[in-house]
Amino acid sequence: MLDQVYSLLGMARRAGKITWHEAANLAAIRSGKAKLLVLAIDTGKSTEKKYLDKCSSFCIPLVRFATRNMLGESLGSSPRAAVTVLDEGFAAKIVTLLESEGNTEK
Questions:
Q1: Region 30-39: what's the mean pLDDT?
Q2: Confidence tier at 33 by pLDDT (50, 70, 90)
Q3: Rounded distance, CA 17 to CA 9, Å?
Q4: pTM higher than the cut 0.85
Q5: Residue 91: how many CB atoms within 10 A of its CB?
Q6: pLDDT, tens digit (0-9, with 9 covering 90-100), for 66-95
Q7: Strands 82-85 and 18-19
Q8: Which is higher by pLDDT, 105 or 12?
Q9: Residue 96 and residue 94: Cα distance in Å, rounded?
Q10: Taking the CA atoms of the chain, what radius of gyration do you get in angstroms?
Q11: β-strands 36-39, 82-85: how paired?
């Protein structure tokens, strides 16, 4: 099941439905374009606090999943602390898969 989440993240990237740079992530959250934030489980405390505060302020769902290396690998890039999903369908499927595995912390 977790392989499907990594595959979905990769497909969403190829479809242009993901942001993964910090400035782009925060802009998507502020603008309301973000449908889900995937935060790596090994994210630093200050980065974690920044994203948790923004997501709670703008009512964006957040899930904690994978390590920074695994998130980056699934996107074909360097390690990533956070990934913002911009598509409702991709976001819903990722949440469903993670909940079925019991791997989410909201």
A1: 96
A2: very high
A3: 9
A4: yes
A5: 23
A6: 999 999 999 989 999 999 999 999 999 999
A7: antiparallel
A8: 12
A9: 5
A10: 12
A11: antiparallel
Give the Cα separation of 61 and 64 in Å (integer). 10
Both tokens of residue 1?
């099941």
- C-alpha–C-alpha distance, residues 73 and 96, integer Å: 21
Whole-angstrom distance, CA of residue 54 vs CA of residue 25: 10
Q: Is the pLDDT of residue 104 over 80?
A: no
The pLDDT assigned to 102 comes to 73
Fold assignment, 2-101: 60s Ribosomal Protein L30; Chain: A; (3.30.1330)
The H-or-E segment that residue 85 falls in is strand 82-85
CA distance 67 to 9: 14
Mean pLDDT of the chain: 92
What is the signed CA dihedral for 32, 61, 37, 105, rounded to 10 degrees? 170
Residue from 73, 101, 82 nearest 6 by CA: 73
Residue that has been written with the tokens 């994210």 in this structure: 43
The answer to whether the CB of 70 falls within 8 A of the CB of 5 is: no
